[in-house]
Amino acid sequence: MRVPFVLPRLPRRAPRSSAQRDRRAFRSVLAVGVVAALVIPVGRPVGYTLADSLCTGSGCDPAFEDVPVCATVGRDRATASETRIYSTPISAAQGARLDTYGDGEVEIVVPSRGAVEVYRFQNLRQARAWAFDRAEELDRTIDAAAGPLSAGTHAGYSRVLEGMGLYSPHQGVPSQTGTGYVITTDRRQSGVLLDEATTGMSVQTLVPEFPLEGTPALSTLAARLGLTEFLVLTVRRDPAGAPLSLEVAGLGSESWSLSALRAPETSDIDYSRELSDEGGALLWRSYLLDLRRQANSEVFGEVFDTSTGPGGTVSALRTGLFDIRVGSGELTRNPYTALGDRVRDDAVFVEQELRLDGPGTSADSPASVLAPVYRGASLHPAPVSTSTEIRSADLSFAGSTVQPLLECSVPDSDTAAHPAGLEV
């Protein structure tokens, strides 16, 4: 016997006054106006502005409220544009985060069970529009504007207008797609491999365990570069798989300077391996090496094993006791020492003060907090990381010194909360 379907009874309410009906009508008209503006192509900028106003107070996504804005003060604008200055989780998808760069461009990284998509935008307004179209908070805010019994107002009006052929959401196409991976021959090394949608180029991020047991040369290289506890290696390749650049980056150690890197090999320097965290601020240091130069390309081939499979081309760090192999005559030089020499003579160096905030950042080590972010496909919320005091030096020029690269500040809260139109 089938159980009959019974609608739940709604409690009786006192009749609304005319003032209540007027307020309800006004909110309904406002909700319709927002939805209509959002779904009609020519009205989307207006719709985003109205939706942003509705979110004031409760905040559809507070991640967009305190984003630093930077101005390039150094001469190396190319380096400034590639420098990530801010990262924060956003509510558009589980594990998603927003990254901003020195030139104002924005990326939204969306992981999904081993895969990852990267959406790139020219500015924060475009990124915010993308997030508005996907955030559940917007639906709930518009529904709330129409009253307590208006569940589904946003979805309902969207469906109606979609049937009329007027529904045109801001459909962002990923600029990069990829997957997380683990090196099968050495599972201590893992990361994410991204493919560029338009250029065919690829970006591989490699995060090894650190220190990497059995390979003391990597720890020695890191100490020489002023890095400790956590390393990230990023390889960019052309469509044919040829390496274009290598970035070596990580958390900075204390009591280090470029003079230590440039010291003669005969110098007896006791490099510190203690994490620099003066005043609660960490240091993030990176070195970018151009692999189109023959000397750099040769040493890259000595440090990395590279293979190509169905998923693309991936490089892994070679491991072993290289000093012993040099002493026995098996190798003519320690490849990690040679890589340090090329970095010293030819890399672009960037150093920035880094502050981490969010759940777990006070109790966990910075390395454990950052590792899931750089492995790329984690669904765990990313920490909020903010960079300040960003400086750089081009080490290919003898005697070059560290100079300011970017000056960043957080805009006035009123300006951030009410931008002048959300562009699409």
Biggest β-sheet: count, sense, barrel?
12 strands, antiparallel, barrel
Q: Summarize the amount of helix as a percent range.
A: 25-40%
Inertia-based shape: globular
Major β-sheet strand ordering? 2-3-4-5-6-7-8-9-10-11-14-15
Structural class: alpha+beta
In the predicted model, the low-confidence regions spanning at least 5 consecutive residues are 1-16, 146-151, 164-168, 415-424
Query: Which oligomeric state applies?
Result: single chain
Number of strands: 16
Number of H- or I-type helical stretches: 13
Order of helices and strands: HHEHEEEEHHHEEEHEEHEHEEHHEHEEH
Quick structural overview:
The protein is α+β, with helices and mostly antiparallel strands. Helix content is 30%, strand content 29%.
Describe this structure in words.
The protein is of the alpha+beta class and 424 residues long. The chain has a domain at 176-409. Helix content is 30%, strand content 29%. It has helices spanning 18-39, 44-55, 77-82, 124-134, 136-145, 153-163, 216-224, 258-261, 294-303, 322-327, 335-346, 366-375, 413-417, and strands spanning 69-72, 84-89, 97-101, 106-112, 115-121, 176-182, 189-196, 202-208, 227-237, 243-252, 282-290, 304-309, 312-317, 348-357, 384-394, 403-409. The chain has a twelve-stranded antiparallel beta barrel with strand order 2-3-4-5-6-7-8-9-10-11-14-15, surrounded by five helices. A two-stranded antiparallel ribbon has the order 12-13. Helix 1 packs across helix 2 and helix 9 packs antiparallel against helix 11. It is globular and about 65 Å long. The protein starts with 17 loop residues before the first helix and ends in a 7-residue tail after the last helix.
